[in-house]
Amino acid sequence: MLVTKPNGNQLPGIRSDETQGERWRVPTESDQAITVVYVEDDERLARLTTQYLQSHGVTVVHVARGDLAPAEVERTRPDVVLLDLMLPGIDGVEVCRRIRARSDVPIVMVTARTEEADRVVGLEGGADDYVAKPFSSRELLARVRAQARRGRGLSGPRSERLQVGQLSIDGSTRTVTRGGVVIALTTQEFDLLRVLAERKGRVLSRDQLLALLHGTADEAFDRSIDVHVSRLRHKLGDDPRHPSLLKTVRGAGYVLVSDEDAGREL
Asked: Which domains, from first to last, does the chain contain?
């Protein structure tokens, strides 16, 4: 572990050549102690980028190999993941997929690849943003802060009312209507629907739903999640055999779509 002061000087007794699991901490109130897991095998770039981020109050946990990244993300629970594409062990796209299978943490791809196809692969693999090398440190910091705000629900005032087509969800009164008709839901059904509505159009796995609903995996809820989805469909008037609103994506999870998008293929 390497801890530096705000002036960038290394504290005595700490090795300067330690690269795996390094942490720099200079928390500030303005940045709300943002924590980043930075997956980058270029030691010099990682060091310079980390020094810049830590000088602006960001805690950085550096991981130099792709195959070690998912476990570090699960252990650290960061606000943002900065992820290089070309990595030893496993590449960034696979790292992104493994992280996304268990976490909704914002992921920013940082890579020298600038072809559109590479950007699309990264974003379709679950990344939320993309920065091409060489990048501006100020821009990277701004993106980190923006993604951290979004991940914390601070990109704007949280909407108490969500609208997905004809479906209206009021968080303040915990009521749901579709086409003006009130739909009575249990507490778990409402919470599940709201999580899906807040991420409408995005496929969420069971693990992601559990993390968003409980923070940790709940075995009892996991076994009954299909039942909750089935009951939701019934109450929303969705055809259980051919659902058009709350869809199952085979091998991936569930997605809530609007009435306008109901007929499109996923």
From this structure: 22-151 (3.40.50.2300), 161-261 (1.10.10.10)
